[in-house]
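Example 3.2
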Amino acid sequence: MNRRSATVLLFASSLIVMAGAVVAPSLPGVRAAFAGQSGVEILSRMLLSMPALGVILSGSRVGELVDSQGRRRVLMAGLLVYGVGGTSGLYLPNLPLLLLGRLVLGVGVAAVMTAATTLIADMTGGEGRRRLLGFQAAFMGAGGLVFLSVGGRLADGDWRWPFAVYAVSFLLVPAVKMVIPVEGAVAHEVQAGGKPGRRIWHLYLAAGLGFALFFLLPVQLPFLLTRKFALSAWHTGLTLGLMTMVAAGSSLAFVVLVRRISPAAVLAWTFGLMAPGLAMMGLAGSWSLALLGGAVFGAGIGMLTPNLNTWIAALVEPRQRGRAVGNLNTATFVGQFISPLLVAPFLEAGVSLTAVFVGGAVVSGLVALSTALFLERALAEA
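Structure, written as tokens:
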């Protein structure tokens, strides 16, 4: 893959993390703007998870289109849909329509994520693939730092302003048309046996669990910081931005780590770092400790996406790669979508956000332990 193609795909990938999290600092403002509406507490939080529902509903179909209609065509269409759905928050007048716009955004996310990742897997192989997928996740983290910080500043002025950031996707459409070939040269790298069998379902499950825990941060952390420390939206954006910056560094470290230990061990480390990060944020007595917890969490979550993408790209045949990546994206966003739904009953029952984060830490620790003890053997026997 040449440098121009890689750069465009990396910038397109950076939009993915922006889809949900860039408007996270706006959530308190949204809640205040629609305070008289029934169910505003859960509906305002659903602004972040509605793109996930869009991915869930379209992810598998998008994967099939990537395989049948071509990677570049789906990527360009996805960027357009992304921009239309994302910027709709600038002008839509009520909360139900805002949620619908976020659903459309999710369809764009599914297309951009699946097509970009499949192109990277097709046009590279071996060490080059691992390196570029690591860079992809790092760009997503770096984009999160920029977009979340900007979103926090914009939200301090008006809760609608962060939605304007989504318009950057329109600028990438002509770039994709100019530098991405209609079909990239496929790098054949399929493990013996060709069919992934049960193995791939372990990876889908790991993606769902990991991102259910991850989405505690953009959905619940703004409220935790506001209640405990009376911080502004900018402070929330900076906290989430630091987490994504560390995650970007962790994604780059994955390239080195996976040379020394197995993908299953990398997965155990991922959840093993997420656990103390969640606990520190939940129990933090100061904003600085919450920042540190976010950094520790970021060190873990940053390895999840490149590890699973690289693993799956090697497990499946190129002609089925789009579908497999689409299914992985669906699993990822199932986790994001159900995260606030799982937490809501506890909050309604009076459970504190501190207890929610500590509970997430316990779950993450158990996943890390079970992965270390059982997953590698299960994959070998599958």
